[in-house]
Task: inverse folding
């Protein structure tokens, strides 16, 4: 009861009256909003992915896929004999670019060839055709009947509507430079499968698909519905024996595990980044309350003197913290939801280009996330309120009411904090040295958190050291510097959390910049080594998505025959199953590649290793793949080919930053021999006169050109395109960092506001003894400058170590890449510019306010 | 030195404005020691603040050394305080993070004096108040009387023409208060400055040239002692 009185009379008035509480509120809200938006975005991307996967899996309990690629349809006969298999649905599919209607150009469509008689049992379809058919319960079969014409296709209503297609209209896809025309035979209602991939999906008859996709007698996948009374293990074991090593039988979920694992690492990185803002917000509340305690010492003393007990004081401050935190949570959730719209969009795009096609996810603010956001606000603020509240409760009434207090003599305390910081640093080192397990790098995250803690603990000593140094240096300079230094040192306890928060945000920013720059440098180096061809030819759809489109047959030999061309390297990549996991297997003309270009090998010289690969019919594997499967040079890999298992010795391990799961490279002759694969995805063209690249490109373009959906780019252009994709990937990362820094800036502004409130009297005296307004402004700005400077000095060191963890521990474990460490020296300059201008901006309003202090009040009685 | 012409001050208050000064007129001669006395709330501090430019009058005008200050901007007042007006307050009002010497040197530095020179002058000023041996002490390590002496040294360091003191002995015991008064009086004699001091202490009367008695925001009577 009495507590309520206190809250009503004391807390509410403070909370409402003091403007700086709004700064805190906004800061906390921003911090939470970042966290919430990443949560929403991650969830919705994952949901969208799962939904589309589930819709595709339908009632399928097991699926059969070929290990070396498409499998022979003879398998169906064996499967049909198995009594535990109730239904089976063979599928032939390809993702191909759309050539017509024009409005869909640039998009790709998943073309699914299905067995009409079987398919209905597996997935949900609903048809929209002519009105009378909708009434008809059996319209599924009827609609399927229409597909018996090999040129017929069924499309989702949403797709048709988007592109203005009606039944009877034509849809054209492109493959190998040719058009595949289809007639729209019926519409699928946007339900189930039709909703996935944003409706970019077409159904045709399986026989038509085999014919039109040039896969005679082949199947990409067979879905099975099995008897529930027989365990899947039994069925898998039995089928394994009957079908041999050519195929893999697995649950549909297994296929997604691999992708989900990669998605998880990716999303985990984002979540970790977003918690930074949250932490900075936490510091903000902590700081605000700590400052309140100092500011309200007298009030606390008075309250204690009139009979309020310790517990009540403690609760008073805790509740104030929770009020700010919860309000911040509410606000943050809404802002986060708004922010999420943008994040979701960028994220789907990035995930699509990196991992797997994600349909644009519908935006939503799920109730659990809403509750979570508010709860985080409340809990985080309660935690950060504990220490300040304890400080308030601890004050002795007499002590609290005392007036003058001098410079803090906290030497012992600083020493203790420094020791704790050193301990954290040692622990961080220990964690970073632990062996990494691929996937989630918990030790890396632990090491980063410890590093940040360590450097935060070092901040008080850092301020002391800094201010002593500045004191020495500023002996001869303008008095504003000396005064600002004095304030800084006098209020270490108040300034330390602010500077820590700012330091933390900056350090993260710096480390991320170092990481991205290292990554960038590595990638640039890598493409410089790898992409030496003067012109590249590939289908237009190659850069943008997971299209199966290949180059027209015969293109390679025609290019090779051109007089300007020195050599052509045909590149083809396909998916095979290695140790039951999907792996990219690429074939290329290694002879050409070895002569004119190179791979960066972990050990060994490029030309020699490549020669050895050709001579011995060996395989080259990327570093990521080597890490993923614990492989090394000299190992012999059993790869599934059309002849069964074929052995390939590993001739070399090369660095590669192109694909996420890693890849294997063999000579293209091997791909022909063992996989009967003659297709080409990319042609790397080397010219006799490299500076004629533009002219050659023009002439290629005019010969084949856009009509056939071919792109010809010069080396420079191609590299730029790769770097654009690279930069796009790190867009969110940068955005997240910026927000963390803004939150930290609010902290600085907040601290300075309080500090000038507290020093009203001092400012009054300064003015009375002859300081001008401008001088008062300068003093406060100088203090802000110092805060920015110290924050940045410590952040640079902390950021450097963090970047090591990021590059060599977290990144390595999450993605398997070895990056060359590259310290971009301009980051020092940039960070100083950023930190100092930011601090000055944050200090400006408080400084302005300070200069307007009412003098007579300031020098009047207490 | 100072002339006040019907100076009035009304503190605007939403409910009922407070009249702190009702058209006060007075003259203070160069080199004189004037005491402002009167019951609490009669407007002493208000008057001192107006003369020091910490606040502006609502009506009337104040002349400083023949200059009319009515149209003074903030920076003109600042300039005046830097050169000509020193101030001392009841609460000793030293800056806690500066040493005694730094506190005294500060007004000199603020007006742009050379560092070395400022330190030298600060030392001399502290010597004069008998604290020459405690240059590097922090305010929190000084007693109330010592702090007030540092404050006097600070006001004195700029060699002002006018020294304004608002109850400088109000927070000190009577013996220490007397020492402070003696110090101020002796500084007056050696440097020829003008001293205007608000006080409740009758002991100050023995040093003063005149006493202005105030009552209810007005001058009650002026008592000439010398
Ligand atoms: N900022 C203000 N707002 C409103 N009224 C004020 C303000 N400052 C002073 N007053 C009023 O002006 C009148 C004169 O105050 P002043 O401080 O000048 O008195 P004083 O003579 O210095 O008193 P004391 O001897 O107690 O120091 C008082 O009635 C006071 O209440
Ligand atoms: Mg007074």
Result:
């Amino acid at each position: 009861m009495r507590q309520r009185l206190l809250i009503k009379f004391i807390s509410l008035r403070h909370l409402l009256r003091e403007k700086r509480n709004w700064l805190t509120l906004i800061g906390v809200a921003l911090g939470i909003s970042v966290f919430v938006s990443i949560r929403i975005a991650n969830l919705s991307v994952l949901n969208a992915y799962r939904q589309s996967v589930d819709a595709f899996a339908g009632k399928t309990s097991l699926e059969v896929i070929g290990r070396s690629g498409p499998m022979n349809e003879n398998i169906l006969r064996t499967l049909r004999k198995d009594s535990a298999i109730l239904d089976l649905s063979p599928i032939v599919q390809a993702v191909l670019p759309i050539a017509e209607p024009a409005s869909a150009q640039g998009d790709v469509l998943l073309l699914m060839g299905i067995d009409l008689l079987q398919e209905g049992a597996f997935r949900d379809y609903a048809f929209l055709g002519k009105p009378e058919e909708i009434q008809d319960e059996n319209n599924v079969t009827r609609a399927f009947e229409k597909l018996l014409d090999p040129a017929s296709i069924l499309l989702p209503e949403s797709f048709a509507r988007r592109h203005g297609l009606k039944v009877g209209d034509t849809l054209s896809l492109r493959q190998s430079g040719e058009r595949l025309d289809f007639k729209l035979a019926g519409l699928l209602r946007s339900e189930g499968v039709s909703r996935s991939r944003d409706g970019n999906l077409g159904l045709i008859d399986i026989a038509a698909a085999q014919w039109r996709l040039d896969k005679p007698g082949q199947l990409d996948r067979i879905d099975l519905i099995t008897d529930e009374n027989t365990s899947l293990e039994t069925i898998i074991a039995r089928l394994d024996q009957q079908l041999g090593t050519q195929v893999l039988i697995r649950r549909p979920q297994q296929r997604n595990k691999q992708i989900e694992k990669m998605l998880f690492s990716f999303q985990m990185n984002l979540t970790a980044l977003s918690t930074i803002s949250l932490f900075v917000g936490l510091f903000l509340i902590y700081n605000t309350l700590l400052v309140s305690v100092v500011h309200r010492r007298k009030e606390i003393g008075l309250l204690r003197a009139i009979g309020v007990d310790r517990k009540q004081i403690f609760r008073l401050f805790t509740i104030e913290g929770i009020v700010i935190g919860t309000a911040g949570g509410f606000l943050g959730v809404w802002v986060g939801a708004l922010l999420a719209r943008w994040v979701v969009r960028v994220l789907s795009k990035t995930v699509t280009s990196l991992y797997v096609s994600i349909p644009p996810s519908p935006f939503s603010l799920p109730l659990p996330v809403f509750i979570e956001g508010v709860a985080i606000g409340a809990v985080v603020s309660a935690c950060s309120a504990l220490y300040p509240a304890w400080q308030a409760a601890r004050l002795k009434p007499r002590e609290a009411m005392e007036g003058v207090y001098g410079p803090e003599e906290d030497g012992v305390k600083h020493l203790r904090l420094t020791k704790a910081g050193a301990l954290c640093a040692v622990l961080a080192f220990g964690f970073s040295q632990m062996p990494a397990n691929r996937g989630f790098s918990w030790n890396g995250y632990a090491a980063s958190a410890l590093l940040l803690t360590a450097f935060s603990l070092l901040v008080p000593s850092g301020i002391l050291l800094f201010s002593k140094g500045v004191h020495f240096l500023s002996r001869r300079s303008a008095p504003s510097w000396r005064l600002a230094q004095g304030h800084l040192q006098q209020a270490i306890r108040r300034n330390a959390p602010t500077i820590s928060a700012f330091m933390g945000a900056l350090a993260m920013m710096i480390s991320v910049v170092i990481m991205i720059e290292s990554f960038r440098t590595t990638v640039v180096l890598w493409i410089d080594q790898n992409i030496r061809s003067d012109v590249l030819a590939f289908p237009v759809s190659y850069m943008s998505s997971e299209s199966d489109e290949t180059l027209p047959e015969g293109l390679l030999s025609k290019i090779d025959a051109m007089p300007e061309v020195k050599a052509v390297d045909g590149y083809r990549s396909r998916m095979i199953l290695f140790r039951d996991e999907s792996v990219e297997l690429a074939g290329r003309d290694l002879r050409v590649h070895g002569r004119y270009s190179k791979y960066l090998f972990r050990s060994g010289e490029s030309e020699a290793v490549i020669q050895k690969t050709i001579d011995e019919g060996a395989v080259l594997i990327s570093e990521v793949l080597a890490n993923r499967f614990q492989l090394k040079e000299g190992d012999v890999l059993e790869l599934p080919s059309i002849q069964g298992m074929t052995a390939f010795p590993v001739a070399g391990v090369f660095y590669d930053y192109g694909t996420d799961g890693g890849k294997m490279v063999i000579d293209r002759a091997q791909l022909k021999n063992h996989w009967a694969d003659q297709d080409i995805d990319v042609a790397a063209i080397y010219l006799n006169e490299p500076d004629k690249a533009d002219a050659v490109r023009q002439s290629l373009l005019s010969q084949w050109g856009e009509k056939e959906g071919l792109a010809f780019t010069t080396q420079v252009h191609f590299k730029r395109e790769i770097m654009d994709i690279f930069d796009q990937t790190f867009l969110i990362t940068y955005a997240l960092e910026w927000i963390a820094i803004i939150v930290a800036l609010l902290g600085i502004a907040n601290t300075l506001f309080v500090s000038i409130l507290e020093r009203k009297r001092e400012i009054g005296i300064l003015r009375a003894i002859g300081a001008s307004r401008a001088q008062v402004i300068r003093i406060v700005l100088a203090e802000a400058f110092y805060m920015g400077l110290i924050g940045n000095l410590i952040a640079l060191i902390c950021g450097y170590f963090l970047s090591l963890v990021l590059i060599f521990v977290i990144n390595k474990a999450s993605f398997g890449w070895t990056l060359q460490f590259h310290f971009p020296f301009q980051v020092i300059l940039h960070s100083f510019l950023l930190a100092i201008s930011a601090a000055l901006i944050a200090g400006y309003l408080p400084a302005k306010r300070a200069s307007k202090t009412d003098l007579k009040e300031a020098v009047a009685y207490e | 030195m100072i002339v006040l012409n019907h100076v009035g001050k009304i503190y605007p208050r939403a409910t009922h404005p407070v009249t702190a000064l009702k058209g006060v007129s007075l003259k203070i001669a160069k080199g004189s020691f004037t005491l402002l006395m009167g019951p609490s709330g009669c407007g002493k501090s208000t008057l001192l603040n107006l003369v020091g430019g910490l606040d502006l009058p609502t009506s009337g005008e104040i002349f400083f050394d023949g200059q009319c200050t009515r149209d003074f901007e903030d920076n003109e007042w600042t300039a005046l305080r830097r050169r000509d007006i020193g101030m001392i307050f009841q609460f000793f009002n030293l800056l806690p993070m500066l040493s005694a010497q730094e506190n005294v040197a500060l007004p000199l530095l603020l007006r742009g004096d050379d560092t070395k020179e400022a330190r030298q002058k600060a030392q001399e000023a502290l010597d004069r108040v008998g604290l020459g041996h405690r240059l590097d002490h922090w305010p929190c390590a000084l007693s109330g009387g010592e702090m007030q002496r540092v404050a006097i040294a600070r006001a004195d360091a700029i060699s002002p023409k006018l020294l304004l003191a608002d109850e400088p002995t109000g927070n000190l015991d009577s013996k220490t208060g007397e020492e402070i008064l003696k110090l101020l009086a002796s500084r007056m004699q050696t440097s020829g400055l003008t001293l205007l001091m608000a006080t409740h202490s009758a002991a100050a009367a023995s040093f003063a040239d005149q006493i202005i008695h105030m009552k209810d925001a007005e001058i009650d009577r002026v008592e000439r002692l010398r």
Q: What stands out?
A: The pocket of magnesium ion (ligand 2) is lined by residues B 44-45, 166 (CB under 6 Å). The interface with chain B takes residues 403-407, 475-476, 478-479, 482-483, 486-487, 489-490, 761-762, 764-773, 775, 855-856, 859-862 of chain A (CB under 8 Å). Confidence is low (pLDDT under 50) at residues 130-136, 403-408 of chain A.
